[in-house]
Amino acid sequence: MKIGIIGAGHAGVEAARVAAAAGAEVTLFSNESVLPYFRPRLVALAFGQTAPDSLGIKPAGWYSDNHIDLILDAEVSALDAATRTVTVHGAKRTFDGLILTTGSKPVQPPFVSTLRGSRVLPLWDMAHALMIRDKLVKAGHCAVVGGGILGIEAALRAREIGMSVTLIERVGRLMPSQFGARASDVLRKQLEDKGVEVRLARSVTQAETTESHVDIHLDDGSVLSAAFCLVSIGTRPYAGLASAGGIALRRGVMVDPTLKTSAPNLYAAGDVIEFEGVSRSSVREATAQGKLAGENVVAALQGKEGTRFEPLLLPLTFKAGDFELCALGAPGGEGLEEQVLDVPVESAFRALIRHQGALVGVQMVGTRAGLDDFARQVVRMNKPAP
Ligand SMILES: Cc1cc2nc3c(=O)[nH]c(=O)nc-3n(C[C@H](O)[C@H](O)[C@H](O)COP(=O)(O)OP(=O)(O)OC[C@H]3O[C@@H](n4cnc5c(N)ncnc54)[C@H](O)[C@@H]3O)c2cc1C
Description:
By secondary structure, the protein is of the alpha/beta class. The chain has helices at residues 10-21, 42-46, 62-65, 126-134, 149-160, 181-193, 240-245, 283-301, 371-377; strands at 2-6, 25-29, 68-71, 76-80, 85-88, 91-94, 97-100, 104-106, 120-122, 141-145, 164-169, 196-200, 204-209, 214-218, 223-226, 228-231, 235-237, 253-254, 266-268, 273-274, 316-320, 323-329, 337-341, 349-355, 358-365.
């Protein structure tokens, strides 16, 4: 039973572990030149707070010890989904089962560049993190575009190493996908207390990089000068290989409830998929899906039924010193009711989001009091019928 896995991130490594443990001959293709790493730690690496070799998902010897043939610098350049044949460096290999775990890519407006010398950078892989690290200037200025969790963490870490920071968000509130206006406002005040300048409802129109700095032009006519500008405005499933290979996709690769794609014995997991119409960007979700895809491809090859994936309803939590936030479920909006709760400390915020009485969302800033209890009660909105 030969199983190929394309992409060695959180989903790919877990799929490989499970398939190899079930006795399959597993080949794990990575287009990166370093061992698979824990992607959220890239923020600490970018700001010089950890070393590249501390990020590994598994230790170096783990892959061969677990009978996984991990091939680095191995970009799968073509895929024939019908025959499960992949092309790597011009050579074709055919597998009994395949799992696509190519992840996602950051959305990059035209002013972002990863070319050498650029000072306007995304942060999605090890190479980006090292490019940012090269540009750190003690007491210099750092601009961050995107007020999501990645942008907020970057802003806080830049402050920790003594840089001044401007955080720019196009929408009129921070973390707009997770938080309503009140929670976002508390978040903004807490960031400002940490010395982060927050500019809401502002977009970057242009960026001009010089030898020593970058000038960032905003839509109100102002210009910010920074040592570098980190851009984090969202991600998209990285599904080009699937589309060229003949697999059905919309925004992400379409899968059935067992994570099977439209092609026979070909499964997909992690950020690359669209499940029940939603594409996520989550380590825990990617890992859980990778596990199930590994189990289900083995089951399919043994002529057994696959298990259905049950999406996880997990809180997004973040803590750095006394800065803390948690968000779960719906951010609020039309037809939803926001119930503000008491807080244990001044300047914190807690709210529950309800839909026709049912708890569908939790938002907390500066505290996580009661989170575990609420998390147990939250129900998914618009859960499709089985
Ligand atoms: C800086 C940062 C901070 C984050 N923080 C958090 C967080 O706090 N919590 C959280 O839950 N999530 C966080 N995320 C998101 C999380 O990292 C992703 O959701 C997760 O990595 C998805 O796992 P995956 O296996 O689907 O894809 P990935 O981990 O992206 O792995 C995909 C791999 O496939 C490789 N690949 C792509 N195409 C090919 C090909 N053709 N051939 C071979 N290899 C290929 C890619 O190079 C990559 O190595 C963060 C992400 C970043 C970048």
